[in-house]
From TrEMBL:
<keyword id="KW-0378">Hydrolase</keyword>
<comment type="similarity">
    <text>Belongs to the GTP-binding SRP family. SRP54 subfamily.</text>
</comment>
<dbReference type="GO" id="GO:0030942">
    <property type="term" value="F:endoplasmic reticulum signal peptide binding"/>
</dbReference>
<dbReference type="InterPro" id="IPR013822">
    <property type="entry name" value="Signal_recog_particl_SRP54_hlx"/>
</dbReference>
<keyword id="KW-0256">Endoplasmic reticulum</keyword>
<dbReference type="GO" id="GO:0005525">
    <property type="term" value="F:GTP binding"/>
</dbReference>
<dbReference type="InterPro" id="IPR000897">
    <property type="entry name" value="SRP54_GTPase_dom"/>
</dbReference>
<dbReference type="GO" id="GO:0008312">
    <property type="term" value="F:7S RNA binding"/>
</dbReference>
<keyword id="KW-0687">Ribonucleoprotein</keyword>
<dbReference type="InterPro" id="IPR036225">
    <property type="entry name" value="SRP/SRP_N"/>
</dbReference>
<dbReference type="Pfam" id="PF02881">
    <property type="entry name" value="SRP54_N"/>
</dbReference>
<dbReference type="InterPro" id="IPR022941">
    <property type="entry name" value="SRP54"/>
</dbReference>
<comment type="subunit">
    <text>Component of a signal recognition particle (SRP) complex that consists of a 7SL RNA molecule of 300 nucleotides and six protein subunits: SRP72, SRP68, SRP54, SRP19, SRP14 and SRP9.</text>
</comment>
<dbReference type="GO" id="GO:0003924">
    <property type="term" value="F:GTPase activity"/>
</dbReference>
<keyword id="KW-0547">Nucleotide-binding</keyword>
<keyword id="KW-0963">Cytoplasm</keyword>
<feature type="domain" description="SRP54-type proteins GTP-binding">
    <location>
        <begin position="269"/>
        <end position="282"/>
    </location>
</feature>
């Protein structure tokens, strides 16, 4: 099960629970079982899933919840917290400081994406003002140095390696020494991988680590590794002081649940994810927005980041103003439909709000959804300005609905369906009312607000 599906299953389970008239133990158990099944299918380790279920049951004592308490909210919050806990080892990883020499060593199995990720990591920091350098201490895989050299040249990052020297420790030490002299503040050492965990790999890693004394060891893991993730991550952690995890290939049909297991095994946070083969297909990993998206709660901080990134500057104030007012009129819905159909920049932005976009345009059913959106727009073309600009749902009485149906040549049932859709989207939109529009770089405060 890929992550998108996992998110879908979890939010459906929560929705089903929300639809139940009374939330009793049976309903809670059904919901938790459904979520557990989804997590297991996504390769989260069995023990972690079982612990999560036990913890939630401990926190959510249905008998103790006083009447009037919103049980659903409490349960949803408990699930959110437990998933965050799984992904958050409780201590941040070491972060390199600009201007101060720092050695970062990359470890992982062959094919995990280690070499590619070294360059992505260097490139990411270079864009932020660091002076990175790459050292290829992978003498096991023929072509590893060429690959690193090619990537480094493309990104204009200095590199060091050897075609003739077979001792990885010697190359690592020489490389680190050279770049220290050149005042590089982020020296990245790529080490050898093997097809499977074996003694020679771990011994070599230990020696490189002892000789270069890295400030941070990053374990790179392919997200499609499956249930083996926990054991693999643990084996690496036992040999070297893994301090952070990077999960690669999150773009493919990955069962991303392995990431959760790797965090548990290494007690180290996931700091970045790889989302493609290209240098800039690399994202900072933040636990709360990630879990929000999994639970279909929307990634609001990512959403704001995306607005700054893809919406043209001159269109930003207007969109942000509308967002902060929180009045979602039918006209705004019409405009957003236009954007979603064009899948232009704002369409991309709205894809950050899973319920907003995914429900309108579910994956694999894009054609069907496009036809539906077009039908809705035809009906809205038969509306008056007053109807389009009002955010009062009571305005749409029977005679108006009948008139719109006649005018657009669509059945009354469809007009009502469209108005239901409007109400649903308006509810999501209303969450943004009063939103303080942050400037770029002020996202963490926003995300705290939204998750509160
Ligand atoms: P290494 O043996 O661990 O050094 O792995 P490489 O860096 O050579 O990567 C193995 C393959 O995975 C290459 O074809 C990379 O282009 C590909 N790769 C690495 N990271 C990603 C990613 O995030 N997404 C995708 N789709 N491919 C990736």
């Amino acid at each position: 099960m890929v992550l998108g599906e996992l998110g879908g299953t979890i939010s459906r389970a929560l929705q089903q629970m929300s639809n139940a008239t009374i939330i009793d133990e049976k309903v809670l158990n059904e919901c938790l079982n459904e979520i557990s099944r989804a997590l297991l299918q996504s390769d989260v380790q069995f023990k972690l899933v079982r612990d999560m279920q036990t913890n939630i049951k401990k926190i959510v004592n249905l008998d103790d919840l006083a009447v009037g308490h919103n049980k659903r909210k409490i349960i949803q919050q408990a699930i959110f917290n437990e998933l965050c806990k799984m992904l958050d080892p409780g201590k941040p990883s070491f972060t390199p400081k600009k201007g101060k020499t720092c050695v970062v060593m990359f470890v992982g199995l062959q094919g995990s994406g280690k070499t590619t990720t070294c360059t992505k990591y260097a490139y990411y920091h270079q864009k932020k003002g660091w002076k990175p350098a790459l050292v290829c201490a992978d003498t096991f895989r023929a072509g590893a140095f060429d690959q690193l050299k090619q990537n480094a040249t493309k990104a204009k990052i200095p590199f060091y390696g050897s075609y003739t020297e077979s001792d990885p420790v010697k190359i690592a030490v020489e490389g680190v020494e050279r770049f220290k002299k050149e005042n590089c503040d982020l020296i990245i050492v790529d080490t050898s991988g093997r097809h499977k965990q074996e003694a020679a790999l771990f011994e070599e890693m230990r020696q490189v680590s002892e000789a270069t004394k890295p400030d941070l060891v990053i374990f790179v893991m392919d997200s499609s590794i499956g249930q083996a993730a926990f054991d693999q991550a643990q084996a690496f952690k036992q040999s070297v002081a893994v301090g952070a995890v990077i999960v690669t290939k999150m773009d493919g049909h990955a069962k991303g649940g392995g990431a959760l297991s790797a965090v548990a095994a290494t007690k180290s946070p996931v700091i970045f994810i790889g989302t493609g083969e290209h240098m800039d297909e690399f994202e900072v990993f933040d636990v709360k927005p990630f879990v929000s998206r999994l639970l279909g709660m929307g990634d609001l901080s990512g959403f704001m980041d995306k607005i700054h990134e893809v919406v043209p500057m001159d269109q930003q104030p207007e969109l942000l103003q509308k967002l902060s007012e929180g009045n979602f009129t039918l006209r705004i819905m019409y405009e957003q439909f236009q954007n979603i159909l064009k899948m232009g920049p704002i369409g991309q932005v709205f894809s950050m709000l899973p319920r907003f976009s995914a429900e309108l345009m579910p994956k694999g059913r894009e054609k069907e959804s496009q036809a539906k959106i077009k039908r809705y727009m035809t009906m809205m073309d038969s509306m008056t300005n007053e109807e389009l600009d009002s955010s009062n749902p009571k305005l749409m009485n029977d005679s108006r609905i009948l008139r719109i149906a006649r005018g657009s040549g669509r059945p009354v049932r469809e007009v009502m369906e469209m108005l239901e859709e409007y109400k649903r989207l308006a509810k999501i939109w209303s969450k943004m009312k009063g939103l303080k529009i942050p400037k770029k770089g002020e996202m963490s405060a926003l995300s705290r607000n939204m998750n509160a």
